Amino acid sequence: METAYSIKASRIFPMTGKVLENHWINVASTIIESLSLKPAFDKRLELPEKTVIIPALVNAHTHLELSQLKVPLDVPMRKMSGWVKTLLAFRRSAEYNAPLAIQSALQCLQNNIVSNNTLQSTAALGDIVPPNIEPLPVLPVSLPPSASLCPCWLAFVEWIGWRKDQIPDGNLKSWQYGVSPHAPQTLCPALLEKAVRMNVPVAMHLAETEEELQLLRSGTGPLLEMMRLADADYEPAQTLLGKRPLDYLQLLAQAPKAFIIHGNYLDDEELRFLAGHRETMSVVYCPRSHHYFRHKQYPLRKMLDYGVRVLLGTDSAASVPDIDLTNEIRFAAALHRNVPVEALYRSAALSGAEAFGLTDCGKIAAGYRAVFGVLY
Ligand SMILES: [Zn+2]
Q1: What distance in angstroms lies between residue 205's CA and the mean position of ligand 1's atoms?
Q2: What is the pTM of this model?
Q3: Which domains are present in the chain?
Q4: What percent of the chain has pLDDT over 70?
Q5: Contact partners, residue 235, CB within 8 Å, separation at least 6
């Protein structure tokens, strides 16, 4: 919707204080001008009863390269090792085309914004991209804090290498936002240290499964078997940085921004560590993907109580049916009855904007961009 207009919803969560009921948001030239009980402009849009408006959504973790999958991978017992095997087979198939998948997904989100008059909008995505791809230039890239494009595509280039000779060169391309050292089992310490030394944002899968904790603790278990299938000479003692996720957190804390993907099995000490570093470190919870993998209950309430900055992500089409963050909010709200829904809205919008340094998103207030998340 162009020019000036006013939009009304039953409830607005501006993230600046209390909830506003039956207020209008007045927008001029895509920027919020004011909030009021009466509309400031003639052009008006009144959303249906019970509709909630929150600031634009920040999907903090996804893998758009897999967006061509129509349904999540069908894997017995949803075991991670079987899932990875199926995923690698898909990546080798003729159907897989990472640049096209990324382009289509971003285009779809952008069309959604245009066709829905700035509603249901994803302001930004933290996306893990494979190395050695060049996305088709469908969207010009703008990086924070001047991220005026919607959606703002924040691409972390994925690094995998459990042997020193697998370490890639270390320069980011202009369209890349950060680096994603993949996960403890697929990284040697030198690679992780190099990622942190690059002094750019990092996103790492950590404490994702109980099998990962077992591998860290004792160098045994299903993840060892999985890695030995890929590399018969795989040696946990030479690959792993330490005995527990905390060893990784301490190193990642040296990066300017660190996104801990999943963190499903972080212990109390690790959560306190993250809370103590909340200005630069965030955890990304992916509710439906977490459910898909049948993990133990996510310690969301505890994380928030400790003061950890929790963001929301969808994860990929390999474990969820769509990349719509509003569906993650609804799912998490039904699952975590002990967490106020406003805390989920905050995780999905303001916390994400703050974590990625998107200074013109995250709040519904004068001067902020008029892009909104809408829950019907
Ligand atoms: Zn992931």
Answers
A1: 6
A2: 0.94
A3: 56-359 (3.20.20.140)
A4: 93
A5: none
